[in-house]
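Appendix B, example 12.
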Amino acid sequence: MKKSGGLGDLKLKTGVSERKVEKFLAGGPKEQASQTPKKRINFDVTEEEHRRLKVRAAEEGVSITEFI
């Protein structure tokens, strides 16, 4: 009798093996491929603060991202 509702059904519908699906869901090769850890900074600033950041970055000849 066929199992239903599990990852095994995905193989029949997509042609992708259950192991590959589980590896993808666990953060498989994509995360392992990057050797340099990445960090994200996300915060709100006023328009004035943004303008000042942009001016300072421009004075340094870099983008805001590079400046921070």
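The chain is about 55% helix and 0% strand. The chain has two domains: 1-36, 38-68.
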